[in-house]
Automatic annotation (TrEMBL), chains A, B:
Binding, NADPH: 121
InterPro entries: ACT-like_dom_sf, ACT_dom, Asp/hSer_DH_NAD-bd, HDH, HDH_cat, HDH_CS, NAD(P)-bd_dom_sf
GO BP terms: methionine biosynthetic process; threonine biosynthetic process
Binding-site list for L-homoserine: 206
Coiled-coil regions listed in the entry: none
Domain of life: Bacteria
Originating organism: Isoptericola variabilis (strain 225)
Pathway listed: Amino-acid biosynthesis; L-methionine biosynthesis via de novo pathway; L-homoserine from L-aspartate: step 3/3; Amino-acid biosynthesis; L-threonine biosynthesis; L-threonine from L-aspartate: step 3/5
Name the record gives this protein: Homoserine dehydrogenase
Amino acid sequence: MPAHTPASDPSPASATRALRVALLGCGVVGTQVARALLEHADDLAARAGAPLELVGVAVRDVTKPRDGVGTVIPADLLTEDAEVLVDEADLVVEVMGGIEPARTLIRRAIDGGASVVTANKALLAEQGPSLFEAADAAGVDLSFEAAVAGAIPIVRPVRESLAGDHVRRVLGIVNGTTNYVLDQMATHGLELAQAVKEAQELGYAEADPTADVEGLDAAAKAAILASLAFHTRVSIGQVAREGITSVTADDVAWAARTGHVVKLLAIAEQTDEGVSVRVHPALVPLDHPLAAVRGAFNAVFVEADGAGSLMFYGQGAGGRPTASAVLGDLVSAARDKLVGGKGPHESAYASLPVLPADAAVTRYQVRMVVADRPGVLAQVAGVLADHGVSIDTVRQTAGEPPADATGTGTASLLLTTHAAREASLAATVAALDGLEPVREITSVLRVEGV
Amino acid sequence: MPAHTPASDPSPASATRALRVALLGCGVVGTQVARALLEHADDLAARAGAPLELVGVAVRDVTKPRDGVGTVIPADLLTEDAEVLVDEADLVVEVMGGIEPARTLIRRAIDGGASVVTANKALLAEQGPSLFEAADAAGVDLSFEAAVAGAIPIVRPVRESLAGDHVRRVLGIVNGTTNYVLDQMATHGLELAQAVKEAQELGYAEADPTADVEGLDAAAKAAILASLAFHTRVSIGQVAREGITSVTADDVAWAARTGHVVKLLAIAEQTDEGVSVRVHPALVPLDHPLAAVRGAFNAVFVEADGAGSLMFYGQGAGGRPTASAVLGDLVSAARDKLVGGKGPHESAYASLPVLPADAAVTRYQVRMVVADRPGVLAQVAGVLADHGVSIDTVRQTAGEPPADATGTGTASLLLTTHAAREASLAATVAALDGLEPVREITSVLRVEGV
C-alpha cells in the first residue's frame, strides 16, 4: 500500500520517523479526517512532532462509490482488510460506529501497541471499562473527545483542566437533533411530529429518529460524562432515561409562560449518596446559559466546587466538527507516542455508587385539570404533604365552565415543587391521579438548572 | 521544614514517591491552592498518580497576618527564602504576580528541573518566549491555564483539542471588571465613572482600575491567546489596545437601540496577511453568544475551520476559580513528571507576521451630528466613497431645531460600514471631521462578531 507522506521537505530537526495512521471507516467523519491528514500534513506534523502518515482506510466494500475517494483520498488507500491495516499502524482512528467489528478492531489495535482515537459513544458507554483497562495495560492512549458533543472540547477539560477540582453536577444538551426539534416547537408552536418531520427534511434527524428522540444517544454521552466527572464507571444501562416523545406543544407553550424552555438534558450529579445519571426533558429557566442554546447546537454546563459554573458550547455533530475533535486527539496521541508515554489513565478510583432512577432529587412542575370548586387546592396540597413533597408555587387558571347549571366546571392547576425524590413524586402523582376532583394530570416535567 | 503529606494510608499500588510542591505567593489564589493541596490530598494523589506534598509557601514577610495561615495552612510552611524552596521542589506554583522576582524564580525552577505552573499573565505576555524556550530545553512543563480567563479551560482546549484544526478567530471577554462595568451601564443606564465606582465598592474593581479599564489586562491575555491559536509568538507590545474609558452611557444606549451590546473584546484573527491582535470596546450583536455574557463572567468564542463556532464560559477571576485552573495544571504536570515526559511544547512554528494596528479590518458604527439640510448625506457618503469605505446602513434622526428662523437645525446620522481597514476608517473620520456640515463626530465604535 503506497504511503501518502507530507509533500514538503521536513527540516532536519523534525526528520522524525513518521507515525502510521490507520483509519477505520470512511463516512462523513472519516472522509474529513482523511482530508485533513492529506491536505494539512505539514501543520499536523509541526504540531504532533512527527509526520502523520495515512497508511490506509478500512471500508466494508472498496467498490462502493464515495465522495472524496479518487479525488481527495487516493482510491488505493482503501482496503477491506481492517486487521492487516490495524496491525501495521501506530495510531488507529475508529469512526465506523457500532459495537462490532469496532470493538474487536480497537482491542486488536491496543493489544498490538497502537494508540486509538474513537468517536464511538455507543461502544464506550457499553464496553468502555474493558477497553480502558486494556489500554492502560498496553500503555497506549484510548481517546474519545469526539464521542461527546462533537467538536466541543469537553472530555479533556473535565478530565484534565478540572483534575484539581471537585465536579458537583454536569448538565448537557448533547443531542443536536432533539435540541433542534424542541427549539422549533418553541419558536413556531409546532407539535413534536411536525418538528421531527421538518428536522428530517433538513437532515438534522435520521429517517429513524429513535436513538435521538428516545434519548439513547444522550444516555450514552451521559454515561461517559458521569464516568469522567466522578471518577466512577457508569455504563449506559445505569442511566435513567426518558426521551422527548411525550413533550407536547402545550408543554412548550406553558414552559414559556412560566419563564422556562424545554430542553432534553443529560444530567450527572453527585449527591451524598452517590452519583445520579439521567436523561430527560426538563424545564430550564430562561436566564440559565443553557436556555440560550438554540437549533442543533450542543452545550455542556459544569458546576464545580472551585471553578464555579462553566459552560462549553459548540457544534455537537457533523463531519467537519467531529473530525476536528478526532484530529485533536490524534495529535495528542502522536505526541504521547513520540515520548513513549500515554495521556491520563482512565480514572475510576472514586467508584461511587450509581443511584437508581427513583433516587434522583429534583424540582417538578405538575399541570393538572381539577374540578373548580372550593377545597380542591387543599385536597391537592394535602396529598403532596402526605408524601413529603413541599410546594414552591401554585398557579390556578380558569378552565371549562360547567356543562349545565348543576355541574362543576374545571380549573387548571400548575404546581411547582421544591426539590423532591423521584420516588416521592411518582407516588404523589399516582395519588393525585386517584383523587376524585382531579380530572387529568396533564404533564409532569422536571425543573433543572436552578 | 516539616512536610504535610496526605493523612490517609496510600495503598501499596500507589506508594509512589511524593512529588514536592513549592508555592510562591500566599494571596487569595495561593491560599486556595494550599487549602486544596492539604484538604484534598487523597483525591489529588489519585488523579496525579502520586501524592502532591506541599513543602512550603514563599512569602515576602512571614510575620504578616494572613487568612488561613495558622488554621488551614500550618504557619511553619511559610518561608521567606523562596530560592531554597524552589531548589528542593519537583513542581513550583507561582501565584505571586508581577515581573520580578517571579521571573527569576520561575527560571531558577526550570533550570533546576522543576515543572512550573503560573497564573502570571503579565510575565508570560512579556517574557513568555524566553521562559518557554528554557522549559523546552530543560524538558519540563510550564503551564498557565490560570493566566487566561481564570477557571475557564481555554489554554488546553486551544492548544490540544484544536491541535488538528485551523483557528480563524478568537473573540474573548477576558476581563471581568470591565464586563461588569459595561453590563451595569447597559442595565442601569449608568455613566462609566458611576459604574466603576460601584464595581470598586463591590470588590469587582481595584482602587486603581487602570489595568482593567485601559485594557492592559485584556491585552496580556490577547497576546497569550493569539500565540496559542496561531502558533506564533505575540507579545503584549504587539497588541493594539483601546480601553473602555471613552465609552459613554449614550454609546451603550445607542448600542441597544441598534440591536447590540458594548463589550470589551480581546480579538485575535488570522488574515491572508498575518495575525491581527487587538483589544477594544466593540458592538456585539444581541444574538451572538458573547452578548449574553453578563456581570463579571468571562467567555472566549473561537471560530475554527473544522470545529466551527465554540464558546467557553465561566468565572474569569477570584481565588477559588483561579486555584481550580492552577490545580488542573498541577495534576497534569505531576502526571508528566511521573512518566518523565512533558506536555505539548510551546508551538511557534507558524511564525506569522503580527500586523500593525491600522491593518485590522472590521466594521464600524459612526455616529455624528450634521447640519439638517438637503445634500448633507450625499457629502458624507462621498467622503466614505473617496476612502474606499462602503456603507452598509444609514439612520438619520431629528436633532436640534434651528436656533432662529434663518439658521439650520441639526440631525443625528448613524452610519454602519462594511468591513474596512482601520487606516481607511481613521482617514475617513478625519475627513468627515473637517467637512463643513459635520458639527461633531459623536462616536466611532467597531462592530464584531458578525
